[in-house]
Structure formats: C-alpha cells, structure tokens
Amino acid sequence: MFSHAKKMDILKVSTLLAAIGMMSFGSSTAFAQADDCIARGDLDQMYCDMDGDLVADAPPADQQVDPDTLVFAYTPVEDPAVYADIWQPFLEHLEKVTGKDVHFFAVQSNSAEVEAMRSGRLHVAGFSTGPTPFAVNLAGAVPFALMGGDDGRFGYTLQLYTRVDSGIDKIEDLKGKRVAHTSPTSNSGNLAPRALLPGQGIVPEQDYEVVYSGSHDQSILGVVAGDYDAAPVASEVVERMVQRDLYDPNEVKIIYESKPFPTTSFNYAYNLKPELIEKIKEAFFTFDMKGTALGEEFKGVSKFVPVTYQKDWDVIREIQAANGVKYTPDNLK
Known about the structure:
With 333 residues, this protein is of the alpha/beta class. It folds into two domains: 4-152 and 263-332, D-Maltodextrin-Binding Protein, domain 2 (3-Layer(aba) Sandwich), CATH 3.40.190.10; 158-257, Periplasmic binding protein-like II (D-Maltodextrin-Binding Protein, domain 2, 3-Layer(aba) Sandwich), CATH 3.40.190. It contains 13 helices and eleven strands. 45% of the residues are buried.
C-alpha cells in the first residue's frame, strides 16, 4: 500500500499536471526536432519520423531524459479516485523494475493528459483508443502495449444500446431519435458510429440527433434513465459498470455490435532514455494481473501484450480519416 505521504505526493502531482493541462499546446517547445526534418507525416513539427513507423523518432542523446520520478496516468474514467487504488499493484511493480519513484496522475481530460506528456511532465500513460493518435502526433507518445488475455488477444467492440422498452429493435428505428455520442474524439463513442453506421442504413446527425454525453458511463446511464433513445458505447466500459452494479443490464439491449477495436494503449514518452524504456517495457510484460485489483477490474485480461501503432491502430486511423479528423489540439478538445 502507498503511504499517506505518498498519496499526498500523488495529489500534488495530479494538481500540478491538471494545471499544466490548461496551458496552450503552442507553449511547448522542448525537444523540438531540426527544421530540416524531411519525414513527419501527421506528426507535430516538434517531432520527426525518419524510419516511417508513424511515431516520433528518439531525439539526440543529449535531449533524452532519465527522470528520478516517473509520472503515470490512465485515461479519463468515471471515477479517477477508484482507479488510483486499482493501479497501485502495477505501480509498485513498475517502481521495483525501474528503480524509480512512480506517481499516479488522476487525469481529468484527454486534452490535459496529452498536454502533460507533450510538456514533458508525463512519462508513461494509458490513452483511450480514439485519443491515442492525438497523443502520438501531438505529444510524442509511443504505444507499445495493450491489456490482453493469455492467448495474446485483445480488443473491444462498439455496442449500440437502447432500453428494452424503447420500441427500437433495429438500426433503422433510430431515425428521428435522440442518440448520445460520448465526445468528439472518442472512437467507439463517436467516430466509429459515424464511419460504420451509414453502411447499416443510418447516418448520424442526418437521420438522428447527436447529443454529446461526455463519457461512456453517462451515455449508458442516460439510456437507462430515458434521457437518450440510444447510445453507442465501448463494450469494455459497460462491462465494468455492470460488474460494479452501476446499472441493471436487464433494462437495456444491444441492437448493433461492431468488429473488435484495440483497447487503451499504453505509451512511453518518445524522449526517454532507451535503457529506461526497456525497463518500462519489462515492467509491463512481466506483470501478472491475476489476483490483483487490476485483474479484477478488467475481466477477461491477464497480462499486457505488445503492439505497434503502425499495425494495430490502422483501423482506427481509417475511421478517423473517414471522419475528416485532423490531429490538432482544437480537434482534441
């Protein structure tokens, strides 16, 4: 267990990083790449991609960092305080393997999390599926792991929920209805339905009214309460909500489900020293979730499995391209 003093340190770090998250993206200039970089792709001008793997190349050795304290953040969730305890066993393992102090940052928004890494104050982070490309291109995040099962499989689906008594039995029945999307950058909560549902005969905003709920949990709870007629949400989120008795699954039904998408990516900052990066990877890939609070919270997974942004986020980039998404700070907010 973390000591009281350490929990106070976590609070201080969270407060500091929350303030950092309010800064303008344009204020970050550290570790800027040479102006003569000829291969960036979608990356911000701070970064370069000479090897073509779609993530930022490591900076010169004299610009690489080896912090005494690693700051770790997990994607914005419905209850950040609960997740600080859930992640505790892994953070202790990360401390042991790296030999570093580790602080948990209870992030309040995707924008704040991305800016914290871009500013150099966040070193290891879990980014949600949709915001991951923003983190890669704006903050120099390098995805390397996902939660998976013993067989190495991973993923979640877009599930379109409605109340069992709504009278909505198929996608076409959404015409003229009020449907909750989560947030503009969310994959399963917004971008995926905009890209996939037209092929099912329904066009968001053209055939039904889109209302942003702010999060997956608010979308499903709004459906249960009757505030929304339906909502596309991430299967992994609603499964955890059922486990915690946050709603009665018998009150809702699924009228559409997509093929699997990658889950939350785990990333290191591109400018960390290679030796530290290897230790961080070692910590992730040697951690056994079974019997821990983390393993209990994320049912169906038992370990972290290796991934690459270029391969495993291809479908997400396609969905975002179909939606005309540009990786800019304004589009992240």
